[in-house]
Design a protein that fits this description.
Layout lengths: L3 E6 L6 H11 L5 E4 H6 L5 H5 L5 H21 L4 E5 L4 H11 L3 E8 L2 H11 L6 H8 L8 E4 L4 H13 L6 H12 L12
Parallel strand pairs: 1-3, 1-4, 2-3, 4-5
Length: 198
Amino acid sequence: MPGSVIMLNGASSSGKSTIARAAQRLLPTAFWHYSIDHLLQAGILPRTRIDSGEFLWTELRPGFFEGFHRSIPALVEAGNSLIVEHIIETREWMDRLAFLLAGYDVFMVGVHCPLAELERREIARGDRRIGEAKADFETAHLCCEYDLTLNGMDDAYASAEKLIAGWQSRSASGALSRMAAGVVDALSARSLVGINRL
């Protein structure tokens, strides 16, 4: 039986990771915490050769993110439930995710945070390129509909409890279902990257 997805979307430094970790501890069933950062921290990329210019990140990046997007339904189809944190940068990414995840149990959550606080956290973290938070702030929520929105300034456990309450009372026709229907109506499967779901 397929698992479920709780998708946390928001700018870098908005609080997605802390909310995801708190929710993972409180949810009544087992959920993976899954993100781009986890893949990067695992060292899967040939970072030294990218940094030296031998491999161009601009050429590798599209396939990296397409692989990440395709991996979500693959893991869910295998019976795993996921808390996915992401920064959905473009309409194309959102359409692609809606297409790949159509028919699955997906709960869309937007994590919002004031720009000034994002920039403060970005500097304090020291592991982010300065300016990323502002760029994300301006684009991350433009292409998404949500079942729930959270304030990244709130206590992580209070946000996790709100998230779980919303997830437990979710309807079958949530935000992802509505977005997926729009994708199917507007585009053929061939117009997206890849003809098959996976």
